């Protein structure tokens, strides 16, 4: 279903109903750009830490606009063994609903706009008919202004006027006296004839203020004065003859109209709040930017710190699954070699996978996957959900006896909960939204600073004695250089000790200097404590949703080995994994796990995670409903009696 400003009010109840009855929800977004500064290769450095990647995206991506949002709900019909799908394609645009509402500034990236245009994207529909939105803080501020304005109006008598400016006009300037005299004459004529109202010519805000001031002082009763807007967006004043009863009725109508306008201005944020309140599993593909933009536009500005962002996100969306990460991990990575959405969808329609059966209600748009509509957000959300179902059901083949349908609440999916794919990071496959991130050893990595004129070939020449290296550019004067052997690091440091044009540091020294810089630049409050004001405000906003958004550089970097050659598999350093054992299913439906033999130091991904692992706890029984009410995310030490043997063992190679 295509949803614009014109049909949003009618569609909203259907959206909320679809969300409430869904087993899970798939989402996707289209943006006006990706990076406002560095190239994508520089924005996604292969040796970024999760904190660095988050800070880059926050700094260089949040000024773009998410202007098409796809949402598709999936509900499993046990009787027919099919999924009932309801897809919505929302056009979103922050149109100000009045002069006091936020007037959003955003930027566009020409390559992104050109690409979407080549896919047939309707930009006119976005800008003419896009659904507005407000964050909860913006909505609260506007409602406070409305209440304050209404209070002032009720105390001022019959003239319905409240100055928007703090400047008061105590007299009529000389150059405006003729204008005001003309208005007074029109009012006198109105009072004498049988006409009920008169419309004045459009005028400036200052002139309107003079009119209100003059009429309020000269005519204490019998008139209703209101500012309106014509088709050309010109503001004019309408003066009507009324008695006290009629005046009160018009005041009530105006207040009701203003409330409706404000409710309409909240717009698409209501959809995000419905998804958050439902607590349902939200599925996306390579969804870190989707989540960041959703939080930023419809909840509140993303926090400065990564840990605060994780808290806000988990409060708003307690269960997330990224299908790109899912396809990049065991047991899928050996049989799925291209994890881009379109190619993944094609692969999952082939053996050993099986495409799910779906059905769409008559009044909803039915997508035909035989004719691809990639980069329409609604379609991308739909096939993201199909990919998730196919991979989830494939996990059921490891059960004894095998199960053809795996619920979105199954414990088999817990290893993939709340981990978002990190694009092109060599040795950290995901961002762990529920705890500490992986910290791989990077003893073989050097941090090199050099003159701006240097290119990749200069770095290769500098390290030519050390065999194969990998260069990851940071900016014009620095890069990471990965050596093939850790033993070579000290040799490289020693040989550069007396160099004048460049400097080499170990990765550990680089991190230490970064930490000092971070501590130095930290904001401090007047009382000497670190300023934590944002975190509290952000959490308040999020919880409100949950319960109650150069050619030269390109040439330089294109010489460096491309991580795309590695097929963007985030866990490329995982070279082997332990054998997968079948799980026996008892007659009563409970699961008992066979012994799983694994290599030394294997990570238990299915069993309860410890504090050290930093992952969220499971959702309880396989078919348990997601918990409602206020959600708290606390770390819990695993108990020996609660430990469940793993389905998949992944070597801990970090």
Question: What is the overall shape?
Answer: globular
- Unreliable residue stretches: 155-169, 523-654
Any idea what the radius of gyration is? 30 Å
> How many β strands by DSSP?
21
Number of helices: 20
In whole angstroms, the N-to-C terminal distance is 45 Å
Q: How confident overall, as mean pLDDT?
A: 79
Percent helix range: 25-40%
Structural class: alpha/beta
Task: Please describe the biggest sheet, giving its number of strands, its sense, and whether it closes into a barrel.
Answer: 7 strands, mixed
**Range of strand content:** 15-25%
Describe the structure concisely for a colleague:
The protein is an alpha/beta fold and 654 residues long.
Element layout with pairings:
Layout: E1 2-3, H1 8-21, E2 24-31, H2 40-43, H3 50-61, E3 66-77, E4 82-91, H4 110-118, H5 123-129, H6 136-156, H7 177-192, E5 197-199, H8 205-218, E6 223-229, E7 235-241, H9 244-266, H10 269-278, E8 281-284, H11 288-298, H12 306-316, E9 320-322, H13 323-328, H14 341-347, E10 358-359, H15 377-395, E11 399-400, E12 419-421, E13 430-432, E14 445-449, H16 456-462, E15 469-475, E16 478-483, H17 488-495, E17 503-506, H18 507-521, H19 533-546, H20 551-558, E18 583-585, E19 591-593, E20 602-604, E21 649-651
Helix pairs in contact: 1-10, 6-9, 7-8, 12-19, 14-15
Organism: Triplophysa rosa (Cave loach)
Protein name: Poly(A)-specific ribonuclease PARN
Family: Belongs to the CAF1 family.
How would you characterize the overall build of this protein?
Its EC number is 3.1.13.4. It comes from Triplophysa rosa (Cave loach). Keywords: Cytoplasm, Exonuclease, Hydrolase, Metal-binding, Nuclease, Nucleus, RNA-binding. One of its GO terms (cellular component) is nucleus. One of its GO terms (biological process) is siRNA 3'-end processing. This protein is an alpha/beta fold and 654 residues long. The chain is 36% helix and 15% strand. The protein contains 20 helices and 21 strands. The strands form six sheets. Strands 1, 2, 3, 4, 8, 9 and 10 form a seven-stranded mixed sheet that branches. It has a four-stranded antiparallel sheet with strand order 15-16-14-17. Strands 5-7-6 form a three-stranded antiparallel sheet, with helices on one face. A hairpin with an 8-residue loop joins β12 and β13. The C terminus is likely disordered.
């Amino acid at each position: 279903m295509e949803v614009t400003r014109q049909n949003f009010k009618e569609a909203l109840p259907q959206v909320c109903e679809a969300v409430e009855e869904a087993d899970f929800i798939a989402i996707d977004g289209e943006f006006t750009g990706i990076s406002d500064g560095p190239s994508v290769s520089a924005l996604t450095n292969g040796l970024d830490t999760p904190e660095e990647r988050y800070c880059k995206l926050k700094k260089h991506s949040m000024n773009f606009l998410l202007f098409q949002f796809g949402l598709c709900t999936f509900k499993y019909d046990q009787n027919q063994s099919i999924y009932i799908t309801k897809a919505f394609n929302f056009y979103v645009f922050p149109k100000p609903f009045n002069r006091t509402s936020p007037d959003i500034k955003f930027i566009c990236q020409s390559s992104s706009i050109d690409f979407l245009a080549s896919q047939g994207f309707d930009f006119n529909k976005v800008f003419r008919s896009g659904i507005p939105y407000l964050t909860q803080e913006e909505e609260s501020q506007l409602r406070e202004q409305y209440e304050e304005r209404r209070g002032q109006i009720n105390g001022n008598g019959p003239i319905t006027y409240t100055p928007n400016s703090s400047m008061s006009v105590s007299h009529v300037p000389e150059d405006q006296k003729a204008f005001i005299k003309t208005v007074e004459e029109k009012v006198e004529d109105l009072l004498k004839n049988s006409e009920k109202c008169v419309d004045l010519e459009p005028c400036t805000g200052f002139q309107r203020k003079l009119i209100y001031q003059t009429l309020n002082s000269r005519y204490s009763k019998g008139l209703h004065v209101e500012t309106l807007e014509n088709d050309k967006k010109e503001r004019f004043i309408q003066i009507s003859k009324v008695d006290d009863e009629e005046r009160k009725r018009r005041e009530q109508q105006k207040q009701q109209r203003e409330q409706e306008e404000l409710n309409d201005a909240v717009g698409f944020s209501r959809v995000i709040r419905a998804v958050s309140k439902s607590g349902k599993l939200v599925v996306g593909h390579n969804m870190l930017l989707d989540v960041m933009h959703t939080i930023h536009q419809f909840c509140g500005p993303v926090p400065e710190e990564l840990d605060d962002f994780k808290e806000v996100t988990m409060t708003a969306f307690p269960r997330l699954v990224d299908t790109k990460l899912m396809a990049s991990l065991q047991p899928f990575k050996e049989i799925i070699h291209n994890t881009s959405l379109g190619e993944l969808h094609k692969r999952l329609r082939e053996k050993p996978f099986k495409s799910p059966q779906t059905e769409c209600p008559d009044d909803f748009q039915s997508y035909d996957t035989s004719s691809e509509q990639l980069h329409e957000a609604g379609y991308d959300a739909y096939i993201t959900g199909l990919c998730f179902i196919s991979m989830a059901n494939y996990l059921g083949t490891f059960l004894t006896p095998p199960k053809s349908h795996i619920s979105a609440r199954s414990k088999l999916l817990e290893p993939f909960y709340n981990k978002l794919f990190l694009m092109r990071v060599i040795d950290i496959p995901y961002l762990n939204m529920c705890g500490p991130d992986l910290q791989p050893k990077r003893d073989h990595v050097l941090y090199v600073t050099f003159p701006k004129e240097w290119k990749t070939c200069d770095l290769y020449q500098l390290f030519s004695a050390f065999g194969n290296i990998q260069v990851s550019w940071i900016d014009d004067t620095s890069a990471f250089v990965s050596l093939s052997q850790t033993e070579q690091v000290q040799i490289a440091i020693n040989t550069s000790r007396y160099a004048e044009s460049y400097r080499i540091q170990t990765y550990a020294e680089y991190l230490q200097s970064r930490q000092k810089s971070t501590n130095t630049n930290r904001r401090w409050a007047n009382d000497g404590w670190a300023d934590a004001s944002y975190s509290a405000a952000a959490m308040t906003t999020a919880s409100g949703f949950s319960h109650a958004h150069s050619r030269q550089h390109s040439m330089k970097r294109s010489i460096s080995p491309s991580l795309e050659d590695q097929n963007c598999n985030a866990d490329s350093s995982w070279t082997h994994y332990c054998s997968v054992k079948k799980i026996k299913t008892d007659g009563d439906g409970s699961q008992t796990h066979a012994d799983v033999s694994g290599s030394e130091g294997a990570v238990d991904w299915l069993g309860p995670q410890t504090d050290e692992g930093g992952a969220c706890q499971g959702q309880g029984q396989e078919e348990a409903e997601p918990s409602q009410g206020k959600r708290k995310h606390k770390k819990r030490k695993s108990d020996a009696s609660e430990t469940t043997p793993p389905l998949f063992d992944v070597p801990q190679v970090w």
